[in-house]
Amino acid sequence: MSDPRSDSGGGPVATLRGAQVEIDPGKVARVATAACLVALAGLIAGLIAAGVNKNAEIAALRDHGVPVEVTVTRCLGLLGGSGSNDAGYACRGSFELDGRRYTQAIPGGVYESPGTQVRAVVSRADPGLLATAHDLAAEEPSWSVFALPLALTVVLAVLAVLVVARRRLRAGAASALRPPPS
């Protein structure tokens, strides 16, 4: 009795029924290129939205922020890389605003002992928007948050021009190869 897994004829052991798959490499390349351009456009839009949001938060805290004293409740060390080096601290603290008590993460990544009072500024409209007074003094709304999206927009425009130029070149070359109508 022979092993059903072996085939002495050198051909396929079994044939599959159904439609064959044919891949057009040119179409795959066009779809992949289009997907990359759309992804780049999405990244640009996300970076612009993040920049607008960052500038709006800074402006809101500077213009309408309320000073508060945040009492540090805990501070945990963060590890980076392989876990052998410090990457800052994640501290939480509580404060009162309009008679309500809030517990928030304290931005800045600096170690503070539990019980320490930290001067901060909070948005009355959104108590989740909190910045230390020190960090807020060093921040200003800035156009520089748009430098990377602007550079990526230039890259996207250049790539789009190259794609269109290549399509036109190929279309022109293909029409030059066709015989004239008789």
Q: How would you describe the overall organization of this protein?
A:
The protein has 182 residues and is of the alpha+beta class. It has one domain (25-166). Helix content is 42%, strand content 25%. The protein has helices at residues 25-64, 133-138, 147-177; strands at residues 65-80, 85-97, 100-106, 117-123, 130-132. It is elongated and about 90 Å long. The mean pLDDT is 87.
In short:
The protein contains 3 helices and 5 strands. The chain is an alpha+beta fold.
Distance between the termini: 67 Å
The shape, in one word, is: elongated
Mean pLDDT score: 87
Helix content: 40-55%
Question: If you compute it from the alpha carbons, what radius of gyration comes out, rounded to the nearest whole angstrom?
Answer: 30 Å
Q: What is the succession of H and E elements?
A: HEEEEEHH
In spatial order, strands of the major sheet run 3-2-1-4-5
Total domain units? 1
List low-confidence stretches: none
Strand content: 25-35%
Give me the secondary-structure category: alpha+beta
Number of helices: 3
Number of strands: 5
Biggest pleated-sheet summary: 5 strands, antiparallel
SSE blueprint:
Blueprint: H1 25-64, E1 65-80, E2 85-97, E3 100-106, E4 117-123, E5 130-132, H2 133-138, H3 147-177
Antiparallel strand pairs: 1-2, 1-4, 2-3, 4-5
Helix pairs in contact: 1-3
Structural features:
182 residues; alpha+beta; 5-stranded antiparallel beta sheet
